[in-house]
Each structure stands twice: as structure tokens, then as C-alpha cells.
Design a protein that fits this description.
Layout (H helix, E strand, L loop, with lengths): L1 E14 L2 E6 L2 E7 L6 H13 L3 E2 L5 E3 L7 E6 L21 H16 L5 E3 L6 E18 L2 E2 L1
Parallel strand pairs: 3-6, 6-7
Antiparallel strand pairs: 1-2, 1-3, 1-8, 4-5, 8-9
Helix pairs in contact: 1-2
Amino acid sequence: MKAVIQRVTEAKVEVAGETVGRIGKGLMILLGAAADDTEAECSKMAEKITALRIFEDENGKTNLSLSDVGGEVLVVSQFTLLADCHKGNRPSFINAGDPEKAEQLYELFVSMIKEKVTNVGTGRFGADMKVSLVNDGPFTIVLDCKEGKIL
């Protein structure tokens, strides 16, 4: 499982011109599920992301977590995070989970985030989405979960 986490002041996702998810201050998460991912990787990723201390305290130090600042979360599925570009110029997505399994893991991840965060917005799995955000910092982190370990 891979995730791109961006600290934002606002973010939204639209499908066919309709806003389906919107947040204020918090985290915008692009999430990709690999073919060999399990609930264990999903759980570990959700735990790590919600505990990350990447928000600034009164001294400008990144000491605060999502819950410390009352942050919101927008989760968007993105299988292209699993692209393999080693051969040639056309990405291969063979490492991405099959759509049914990937959607189950995506929904599980969202439910785990909702246990810890009051306002959680989502995209629409498998849809053509338009995502916009204001990256705060900018502050962006890429996490890769392999066998329950965050890399």
C-alpha cells in the first residue's frame, strides 16, 4: 500500500462537475492498494498517518498530529501510485490490486480513518476525478507499507 500525504489548508474532489468530497485544514491522502496488500497493511497505514506529527505548534515546529489540530481528511483512491516504470516509457500497473480487492481495502482504510477523525471526505473509487488542493508548506510525505512495515 502506498500513500501520498499532503498537509492542506483545503482540498476537494469532483466527479463529473459535482463536488463529492471537501475538507478544510488537514490531510489530503492519495491511496493505492497493491495486489499483495492485506488488512494488516491497511491498519498500519491508517495508524501511522493519523499519528504523524506534521502540523506546526505555537513555535513553528512540526509537533502536532491531526487530532491535536482538529484536522480533517480527504482520501482519494489512486492506483497509479503502484506504477512500475522500470521498463520502457509506458507504466505497468501489474502491481496494483485488482479493482474489487483494492476497493475493499480503500473502504476499510476510510472506515479506519473515520474512527479517529470527525470529518472525512472521499473521492469515488474508479471514477475520473478532479482533485484540487492548497498544499500547506508545502508539506508532502510518501509512505509505502510492505509486510506491515512503513517504509
